[in-house]
Structures are given as structure tokens and as C-alpha cells.
Amino acid sequence: MLFNCATVGILVIDAVGSINLLNPCAESLFGYNNAELSGRPIELLIPENLRSNYFQSSKNYVSRHIDNPTDPGAEIYARKKNGEFFPVDISLSHYELDGEWLAFVFVNDITDQVKTRKFVTEREVWLRNMVDNLPVMVWVTDPERRCTYLNNTWLSFTGNKLEQELGDGWIDGIFPDDLDYCLSVFNTAYSKMSSFSMEYRLRHHDGEYRWINGTGRPTYSSDNVFTGYIGSCTDVHQHRSMTDVLEKLVTIRTNELSVALQNEKEMNDLKTRFVSMASHEFRTPLSIVLSSTLLIEQYAGKWGDEKVARHISKIKSSVSNLTDVLSDFLSLDKLGQNKVELEPAKFNLKELMNQIIEDAQPLRKKGQQIVFNYDGVESIVLDNKKLRYIIANLISNAIKYSEENTQILLQSEVRNGLCHFKVQDQGVGIPEDDHIFMFTEFFRAKNASNFQGTGLGLTIVKRYVDLIGGSIHFTSKLGEGTCFNVQLPYQEAL
């Protein structure tokens, strides 16, 4: 039963190499039946051109008890009745019967195994060729940290032969100053079986040490046994060199900027001290001039001299203008140093607007009218000092840049936490090319040279609006006028 039911081909061979018997599996493998092979030599089942390779002596291999009649590792092929060749695995088992030595020949068809082995071999060759020709250096180590493989890219980089680099040979190429760091990272990763990445210098085949970036990760077998590491190295010398150059340039530039900032700070401090000193030095004589002018005005009033009164008025106007200029310089300086803080207070906005209009009345030209419209909440909480400056400056500009017999509109709309102000005039307008510069310090439009001013008013207005958290914009057409729109947040007065 075992002989007949075996799934491996079995042939019984006598001492002279003749076939005495074969089982059904052997019949199926070779395509012969027992009657066709009984008494026939075993060589019948071997390809003619391979017979000399398989058996040194076909007539005595049984009597010599040879268990494996072929060279180890040799590919063995058998021949079927139809002449087809197929790979087989053969083993022998000897026994003696009635004084005669016989042998069981066990034959396995290994066609599938050969195909698989060939496929694996081809894939291994393909993989090795691919890895050898990668543009990065590839290395492999075993569990004992010895290098077992390096691709051609590595060998081309170092200029060494494979046997020089295997084991611990690759370590000789590391730059001496980087050796301790490199081995520390490598050994720490090994002890933890973790991935790693590092940059170090490796000797190039031209003798120069070049920066490379090395990475590695642990490898495991199919049954999760640690087998070592696989990694790659990339030449980053040019990138690293450029980075070093850029870092040096950044350092130099940073130092230059630090010096420049320090100089600017010193200049700002000097400017601040000068502005404060100049303001004090100017205000004191201006106050004396104004006081003396008031006294002269009183005396002149008694004498009724109109010419004296006219000149006194000019002096007072000039003193007022100089005082305003000094105030603008001081305000701009404080804003530049972030020394200006909000001072919110409860007040009646409509009354404040009326006061601003009343203060502006003496500035009006002949026939000019200020039209005021107000809508919404009157009692609010806001920084009324800065608001007064914003609106007063816009109205005074509207008066200054408008002709006689023109109308200036001040419109206020206050609701839902926002104050909307519009100041519109019928003046000379602003050239379109100058629009983007109107809030710049000391800038004055091309058509403003005949009007008195320093170019600071709108700058301070914009800074105050930003400080309050609002917005300001304008529209203007040359020869037709300008309209400023200001929006400021407020709080409801309780």
C-alpha cells in the first residue's frame, strides 16, 4: 500500500542498473508502465547528453551503496517517454535481498521549485543591479554591527575595494574629528534598535573629506528576528558648504544690522532730546512774545491805532502757528516711541463736534460755510483729545485747501459701536500720483507748495486712528475736492 500510494516516484533498481519495478506515481511521472520499463536500464530515463554527468558507473552504483549518485548542487533532469525533460530530485536507499543488492530510487518532480528558485535568483540579480547603480550610497550590516554589503556608489565615492570596506573597514574613511560623534550615534541606535540620521565627513577618492548625510533603520527577518541595519548616505557637501557660507553672511549681516539699529536708537535718542530741548527753548520765548503782544494790544486799544492792531494780529497768528508746529513735532516723537496711550473718557460727541466747528470759525475764508449733520448716539466713551485732533485737523485742511465761497461738510453717524465721520470739501484736490504718500511724514502734495504746512498733520491723524483701532481713507479728484472718511470704535456710556 505504501509503495502504490506514495506521492513520490519509486523505482527498484538491481545491481547492474536495470529497472525491476516502479510505482504508479513513477509511471505517471515518466509516462511508462511497469511492463515497458521492466528490465530496461535506468539510463533510459536520463537525457542522453547528461548521462555521463549523473553516474560515474551505471553498473555498480547500487553495489557501492552510493546514496547520491550526482554532484551536490548539480541540476538533475529526467526524461519522459515523450522525450520531454523535467528537473528532478533523486535519492537512493539500498537493501539486500537473497544475496542480491537492490536500491529504491526516489524521484521528485521539482519543476515548480526550479521555477521559483530561478525567479528568486533573477529577482536577486535585478535587485542587486538596481541597488548597485542607485545614485545614493547603500550599506548593510549584520546584528554584530559588521558591514556586510556596500553598493558600487559607495565604492566609487571612496575609491576603495569592497574587501577594504567590509567589516569595520569603512570606519577608516570617517574624518577624525567626526569619528566619536558618528560611532556614538551609530552604537546608540543599535542598542535601541531605532532609526537614526546624522551628518559627518567621509573621505572622498580624491582625498578630500566631504559632508554626507547618513540614515539607517533596523531590519528583521520574516519571523521578526533582528538581522542588522540597512542605510543610505547622500553627498550633501555642496549644500552644507553653501549653508555655512549663508550662515556666515547672515551672522555678518545680523551684526551689521545690530550696529545700524544701535546707531538708529542713539540717533532717535538724540532726536528726542533735541525735540524736547527745542520745544522748551521755543515755547518759552513764544510765551513771552504772546504775553507781550497781549499787553501791547491792550495799550493799542486805548490809542485806537488800527495798524498796530493789525500787526499784533499777525504776531498772534504766527505764534499760534509755531506753537501748533511744536505740538505736532512732540506728538509725532511720542508716537514714534510708543509713548502715547489712550485716555478714554465719557463725553457728549455732538457737543464736541460743535466746539470743533466753533474753534474753526476764525480760520474760514470769505464766504466759506461749514455744514454739520449729526445722527445717532451722543453720549459715548472714547479718547476725546485724540478725536478732537483728528476732526479739527481734517476741517482745518478742508478750509485751507478750499477757495472762498465754498462749502465744507462735516457728517457724523454714531451707532452700533462705530463712529463714522466724513469731512468733504470743494478744494484743490490731491493729484492721483500723490495719494499713496499722503500719510507719510513731511510729505506734501505737488499742488500744496503755496499753502502753509509741515506735512505732519495727516501723519499724526493716521497714527491716532490706528492707535484707537479705527480706519481712515479718502477719495479725491484734482480741482474738485477731497473727502476723508474716518471710522472709530466706541463704547456705550453707562
Radius of gyration, in Å, reads 52 Å
Report the structural category: alpha+beta
Kindly report how far apart the N and C termini lie. Answer: 111 Å
% residues in beta strands:
25-35%
**Residues in helix, %:** 40-55%
Low-confidence stretches: 56-60
Shape: rod-shaped
In which order are the strands of the major sheet placed?
2-1-5-4-3
Q: What average pLDDT do the residues reach?
A: 84
What does the largest sheet look like?
Answer: 5 strands, antiparallel
Number of strands: 18
| Tally of alpha and pi helices | 13
Task: Write a brief caption for the model.
This protein has about 500 residues and is an alpha+beta fold. The chain has helices spanning about 1-5, 25-30, 35, 50-55, 110-130, 150-160, 160-165, 175-190, 235-305, 305-335, 350-360, 385-400, 455-470, and strands at about 10-15, 20, 75-80, 85-95, 100-110, 135-140, 145-150, 195-205, 210-220, 225-235, 345-350, 370-375, 380, 405-415, 420-425, 470-475, 480-490, 490.
